Amino acid sequence: MEERLELAEARLRELIGELTGQKEDANTEKTLPGDWRDFFVVQIRLLLKLCEVTETIAAGTATDVQYQSWNAELYKDILPAQYGNSYCDPVKAVAVFGEETGRLLSAVAAEMRSAIPYAFECDTEPVLIRMEFLLELYTIAQTAFAEDGMEPEYAQLKDALYYFVSDYYETECERRVAQIVDPERRFAQDLITGADLSDPSYLYRFGEYVTENEIRLSSYLAKLPQERIDLMADTYTEGYRIGFVNTGKDLSKKKTANIRYPLGFERVVKKAIENFAQMGLQCTIYRAGDSLFVGRGVQKNGFFGANPNKQYDYDHKEDLALILDGHLVNRRLECLEQGFITCKEKAAGHAGPAVIDIFGDVPFTPQNKKEACHFDKEQQGLVARFRMENTRITNTYIPGEERSFTIIAFPVPDIGEQFEEIFDATIAINTLDYQKYQKIQAVLIDTLSGAAYMHVRGSGENRTDLTVALQIPADPATQTSFENCVADVNIPVGEVFTSPVLKGTNGVLHVSRVFLDELEYRDLSLTFTDGMVSDYHCANFDDEEENRRYIEENVLYHHPSLPMGEAAIGTNTTAFVMARKYGIESRLPILIAEKTGPHFAVGDTCYSHEEDNKSYNPDGKEIIARDNEVSILRKTEPKKAYFGCHTDVTIPYDELGLLEAVYTDGRKVAIIENGRFVLPGTEELNQAFEAV
Q1: What pLDDT, on the 0 to 100 scale, is given for residue 173?
Q2: Which residues of the chain have pLDDT under 70?
């Protein structure tokens, strides 16, 4: 490895001299023509800078000034102000190199950038394989121009990319699985536990992009009293523990928990690490994926810094469309399974993720660029198959019936001048009296649990008119169809939910504006026929086909349809009022937004891969609605049972005209009318509205 790295670095240094004319015998006209020369110069300079970063950090001589300088230098290329001049922007690359080659070279430029974080970890292999891949592309281009005076054939460049990905899937999949389940991979944890968290300069050492937002967040947490930090961390980790208790799972059999969080929360994470240790759990903290091997997108999963440019991530989320075929999907799945086999014992001891989510980022509405890569219909089917098989493989080695999770959310300074007020209000929401909600929600469940349908109708311009079929318990004394969800795995408190019966679930779900996984949807409507999405629309773009493709890619995840996997009523009116008070409704994460009105999810049920585990409400009643007509296929056609996605769409209270329970005898009981709870025993939830 060291020898390969030395040779690759030496060759890149030689090339930069030839391409820029700095080498004495260089003849730039005989190397590559202008645009091609400039493309390779940009990529080589980036990789050589990463070599410099690694060498300096490994030698122990890196200073805070250098870390801050690297942060500015390594990410400036894709910042919005510079992005149009970057080869990472597919618009520029296509304009320079043509449609096919331009898309490919733009994807290559993005892939070179994916090596940046590894340099800060002094992990040389990911940097090395990209250096060798770039040298291979250079050889292809230089040979074509030298021998024929022509641009290299697209097929040659595409083959090189294909085999780069295929050849290294094994290494990269093993690396990714180990990052999830192996506590010995301690880069982030050692940084968190060893740094002086009172000085935010430590943030630059992660190798993620750092802005004033992360610095201000870290500085704000640094000045909070320890009791406040303890409250935040204890709520988070105790929710994780209770999740195991409430589902009857044995936490003592587990060895690791995975913390996922955004930079700036290190003081809370440090306390959470201590809390998990008291439970007998070591922590794994891995970096969010950002490459052809693990995927790229606006939504981050792992630990991550600021997003330099969400449009960049959106432009490159389907770069695999350049090379994706059935063989490559099979190769990736085989390598993923091998990665789990290699870490089989550690995977079996993994307890699941503990997630800190954030809200308050500037809302993002992407530009759908025709120059960017897009999966064709056949590839969409392959992507959908991969998501399902990926879920199946993961569940085989980290069994769903043995793991749990928790998720909690806080605002970031980008939310505005009232950040500190909103932060305090969010802590209050996250620590509401769950016992009060548990009692009120029990009243809702008693009413809903015997109903055949739930009927929902919008008000004003909201066009929702939806009938949701419900499972009816055979023995109401011991069974129920809705779960009483309080503040355990899903913080904050405040919802009752069920897996609806698909047959008989019909109508339109509509919201005027909603953010799902950081993407905005305007005038979103989903039509259901027997519980399956049969039509869909939004008004983000002038062209209807663009609107449909936007939903297909980011809500349906390339499935031709998805079932309604969840029907729920959010009861956290306090969260709704807080959002309205500060004008941040559109910036709430789904974790909180779903508690601020009835919501409906498309995709897997909430009990995905755990349907055979009996679940009980606090009153001792068994929750029977854990399956639907699709998930039950796991017993006969398991590849058709799961989709690997679950997306909630919430109707805010002020867009809700009516929500009622409908019984088999035709009787109807109103639960919410004109945005207010009217069911006797739930009126206390309306008190929060009085503050509006």
Answers
A1: 95
A2: 22-30, 487, 691-692
Q: Are 46 and 277 in contact (CB under 8 A)?
A: no
Two tokens at 415? 């939310």
In whole angstroms, what is the distance from residue 390 CA to residue 180 CA?
Answer: 14
- Give the relative orientation of helices 326-342 and 154-181 as an angle to the nearest 10 degrees: 30
Dist CA 245 CA 158 (whole Å): 51
Residues 606 and 505 in one domain: yes
Q: The dihedral of CA 236, 241, 245, 249: what is its sign?
A: positive
Q: Tell me how long the chain is.
A: 692
Three-state DSSP state, 467: strand
Q: Which of 444, 322, 314, 326 is nearest to 386 (CA)?
A: 326
pLDDT score at 518: 78
**What is the longest distance spanned by two Cα atoms in the chain?**
92
| Distant-in-sequence contacts of 202-207, Cβ < 8 A, 24+ apart | 202/266, 203/263, 203/264, 203/305, 204/64, 204/67, 204/68, 204/70, 204/71, 205/67, 205/120, 206/117, 206/120, 206/263, 206/303, 206/305, 207/116, 207/117, 207/118, 207/119, 207/120, 207/121
Report the b/e string of 445-463 with b at 16+ CB within 10 A: bbbbbbbbbbbbbbbeebb
Q: Please tell me whether residues 437 and 398 are part of one structural domain.
A: no
Quote the DSSP letter at residue 668.
E
* Same domain assignment for residues 524 and 628: yes
CB atoms within 10 A of CB 250: 8
Find the domain containing 145 and state its range.
2-152
Rounded-to-integer distance, Cα 254 and Cα 280, Å:
8
Helix (H), strand (E), coil (C) string for 106-153: HHHHHHHHCCHHHHHCCCHHHHHHHHHHHHHHHHHHHHHHHHHCCCCC
Residues with Cβ within 8 Å of residue 156, at least 6 apart in sequence: 140, 144
The pLDDT tens digits of the residues spanning 483-496 come to 998 767 889 999 99
In a domain, 245, yes or no: yes
pTM over 0.85: yes
Outline where DSSP puts E strands in 131-236.
Answer: none
Residues 194 and 260 in one domain: yes
CA nearest neighbour of 215 among 68, 114, 421, 113 = 68
Contact 4, 124 (CB under 8 A): no
Residue 23 has what pLDDT? Answer: 60
Query: Last residue of some domain: 136, 152, 168?
Result: 152
Quote the number of domains for the chain: 3
Residue 10's contacts (CB-CB under 8 Å, 6 or more residues apart) are none
Place of tokens 């009153």: 619
Structural domain contains residue 237: yes
Final residue belonging to a domain, choices 152, 172, 205:
152
